[in-house]
Amino acid sequence: GDSVTQMEGPVTLSEEAFLTINCTYTATGYPSLFWYVQYPGEGLQLLLKATKADDKGSNKGFEATYRKETTSFHLEKGSVQVSDSAVYFCALHGSGGGADGLTFGKGTHLIIQP
Amino acid sequence: DGGITQSPKYLFRKEGQNVTLSCEQNLNHDAMYWYRQDPGQGLRLIYYSQIVNDFQKGDIAEGYSVSREKKESFPLTVTSAQKNPTAFYLCASSIRVEADTQYFGPGTRLTVL
Fold first, then answer.
1. How many whole angstroms separate alpha carbon A71 and alpha carbon A25?
2. Which residues of A touch B50 (CB under 8 A)?
3. In chain A, which residues have their Cβ closer than 8 Å to the Cβ of B54?
């Protein structure tokens, strides 16, 4: 079945540092890929998405590129802020269609220190 | 404002009691979902519904039940058969059955005393 693997946390960085959170996936066909962000005590917010190979999703300074050859969708940001502290989830939606759910990674807790 | 609401935000239950979590959306989405989140784990799918009066089991449906009598509502009942019900429960919706993007509510934290 489908699966998503993302780097274990917590990841602790200083403000203005460069961020990379690795995400790799296993799925048949061409899934859609997502990054969601969760702030403490809240639900998930869609951060960005990509639906086909070589697509780049971007939002709020975050970027991720759909790499079919390496089955990866790494999240990057050039200069993080304290307000970026949250849990980040990589997820995929299988290409089989239908309304089944997303497959999530376990989440990466990001801590940005001033 | 369109969105998904869940109530209550915090819920406490005694062992052996059933409890129902509310999820309402005014996005006119056809599909709705329930996920469970445990500390240090990703989200796991409990049930989903593609359309009114239809729903399907997800990966961890045992001890849960749902109904979909109205398009905008998808309540989840956590029954006494659920062995470890303490968790954070998230409801989501998507515009149609083929759509991949899901939008999430704020969640309900259930604690069994």
1. 6
2. 98-99
3. none
